[in-house]
Amino acid sequence: MHNITPYTSPTYFIYLLLFLLPIMIGLFYGKRFRVYETFATLVILVITFFGGNMSQGFSLIAYVLVEMIIVLGYLRYKRSPNGKNNFWVFFWAVILAIIPLAIVKIDPLMNNATISLFAFMGISYMTFKSVEMIMEIRDGAIKEIKPWEFLRFLLFFPTITSGPIDRFRRFQKDVLNVPSRDEYIELLKSGTNKLMLGLLYKFIIGYVFGTLLLPKVSLLALSYRDQAPLGISWALLAYMYVYSMYLFFDFAGYSLFAVAISNFMGVKTPMNFNRPFQSVNIKDFWNRWHMTLSFWFRDFIYMRLMFFMMKKKLIKSRITMANIGYVALFLIMGFWHGETWFYIVYGIFHATAMITNDAWLRFKKKHRQSIPSNKFTKCLAIFITFNVVCFSFLIFSGFLNTLWFS
Amino acid sequence: MDVKTEIIDILKDVTGLDNVGADPDEDLFADGILDSMATVEVLVTLQDKFDIEVPVSEFDRSQWSSVNKIADRVGELEN
Question: What's this model's pTM, rounded to 2 decimal places?
Answer without folding.
Answer: 0.91
